[in-house]
Amino acid sequence: MNVDLRMDLADCGSPERLLQVLFGYYPDLPRRVPLEDIASDVGIIGFKTLEVDGFIGGLTADPQKSHGIILTKDGLPRKRKRYTIGHELGHFLIPSHGYQRQCSKQDLEESSRTDAYKRQEAEANRFSAGLLMPKPLFVKDIDSLGGIEASHIRQLSDLYDVSMEAVANRYVDLSPETCAVIFSYENVVRYSRASKDFPPLDVRKGSQLPLASLTRRHRSTGSPSQWVNQHGGIWLRSQRDVSFPTILEQAVCQSNGFKVTLLYIDEDAEDEENETRELEARWTPHFR
Length: 288
Ligand SMILES: [Zn+2]
Known about the structure:
Layout: H1 3-10, H2 15-25, H3 35-41, E1 44-50, E2 57-61, E3 68-73, H4 78-93, E4 100-103, H5 116-132, H6 135-145, H7 150-160, H8 164-174, E5 178-185, E6 188-194, H9 214-217, E7 228-231, E8 246-253, E9 258-265, H10 267-283
Parallel strand pairs: 1-3
Antiparallel strand pairs: 2-3, 2-4, 5-6, 5-9, 7-8, 8-9
Helix pairs in contact: 2-5, 4-5, 7-8
Bound molecules: zinc ion.
The site of zinc ion has 7 residues, from helix 4, strand 4 and helix 5.
Domain IrrE N-terminal-like: 62-170
């Protein structure tokens, strides 16, 4: 254990502050962050298999959290396991979180702050995402990959050795574009995430993919579809006094009915469109 590092971390209350101190100690981390080494530097003394139904990850530590053991469900794919370990490490290092923890799949997707429990899960997720996909590096990679493309999510997932879902979240959060990503299985939405400025989606976990969506029709496995212009009403909830923007949709089929959809709103094109509409409205005589 690195005692100096541990002492510096003890003063940090938020995931962001913890990460800042951690990265100060490891200035030249590779993209595939050596998670186990960092964990053992900060007091994790072992990794074990979690054998409790309904849970994916766990933490067990002494009440002072000077030492801990991280547990993960048997058979978890490597990329998801890494994200789970990062999450549990977050619980271990964030002082206000308890020293015994069991986390479900839902906990590992939590991003809301509606109650204390969810807020802690969301903090552990922010820690894991921030540790495994360091912001400055990730932003640079998004930028150098160029325009928005579903295939970039897979590339980044391989590069950082983190699950597609976790990468997609980070991508949507850090990309400068107005975009959203939807994971589905046999046309039912498993999970969706949108950038802050994206209008409210009309799909949620468990709902059917819209009948008119490209994703429903796209069948070829492997390569992503072309981008297709869609009427915003296909994907968005209607809002009073707000007209639907045009949405660009791209779909990728993974194996066995799993699909990923990327939605994107070209803000520049929308601004132009709105200006044209305003001009037209101004020059159209109104009869009463
Ligand atoms: Zn948790």
